[in-house]
Design a protein that fits this description.
The termini are far apart. It is globular and about 45 Å long. Strand 4 (103-109), helix 5 (117-127) and strand 5 form a beta-alpha-beta unit. It has 222 residues and is an alpha/beta fold. The relative contact order is 0.16. It has helices at residues 3-15, 28-33, 51-56, 70-78, 117-127, 145-166, 173-182, 191-201, and strands at residues 39-45, 60-67, 86-90, 103-109, 128-141, 189-190, 206-210, 214-220.
Length: 222
């Protein structure tokens, strides 16, 4: 099975799991603060079950939300029946025909580590309108003391949030097994490598380390 098929199968399997609160959920408010109001078109790359899609749909006339997994898209549609401005599509983003200067905002959460970052940034920059915004959240590989200290704080924070939000200290065994299987071939970027690539394509971007092994990129096209 090639990597494309494996990722799609993994997320088809994960789509039916009842995870509740996740590490990505922790950042929804932070990310949403950067989404402009009164957008006409927003693109979400890797929408998953559509949790964040439904949040940003309140700020835009239209949201195009794409994901590789048919099962994720099916569940997202089931959970978004009251939203008339969301267009969920099964899409391999590497084959997507990017429109020039089209989107007011492009968002991606925990997806770009599956993709060539430099290529994706180039396409996103091309497709955002002048004045539009790019917002990315993804996983980070530790490389220095700062990263390891953030990771040390993240372990107890993760357990506390899981207890508060999901009523348990850790995921059930079947959920852990599904994510462990998916994560066997995962490759995360170091912060220095991330900054090097961003300096080429979006040199004025705001790039931040976060708790829970995450980084964010916020960039506005001039």
């Amino acid at each position: 099975m090639d990597s494309f098929q494996k990722v799609r199968k993994d997320f088809d399997d994960i789509a039916v799991l009842d995870e509740g609160w996740t590490h990505n959920s922790f950042f929804y408010n932070f990310l949403n603060r950067h989404v402009p109001w009164n957008c006409i078109d927003i693109l979400e790359v890797g929408c998953g079950l559509g949790e964040f899609t439904r949040i940003i749909a309140l700020k835009s006339e239209h949201v195009l939300a794409v994901d590789l997994s048919p099962e994720m898209i099916r569940m997202a549609n089931l959970n978004s029946t009251t939203f008339r401005n969301i267009d969920y599509r099964i899409e391999n983003i590497l084959d997507y025909i990017w429109p020039e200067n089209h989107f007011d905002c492009i968002v991606s959460i925990a997806t770009l580590h599956h993709l060539p970052l430099a290529f994706m940034l180039e396409k996103m920059v091309f497709s955002i309108k002048p004045g539009g915004r790019l917002i990315i959240l993804d996983m980070l590989k530790a490389e220095n003391l700062t990263d390891f200290l953030l990771g040390a704080v993240s372990f107890p924070l993760s357990r506390v949030m899981m207890l508060i939000k999901n009523g348990r200290l850790k995921e059930p065994e079947h959920i852990r097994r599904a994510w462990e299987e998916h994560g066997k071939n995962e490759i995360y970027m170091r912060f220095s490598e991330l900054r090097r690539i961003c300096n080429i394509h979006i040199p004025d971007a705001e790039i931040r380390r976060h708790l829970l092994w995450r980084y964010s990129i916020v960039w506005t096209k001039q």
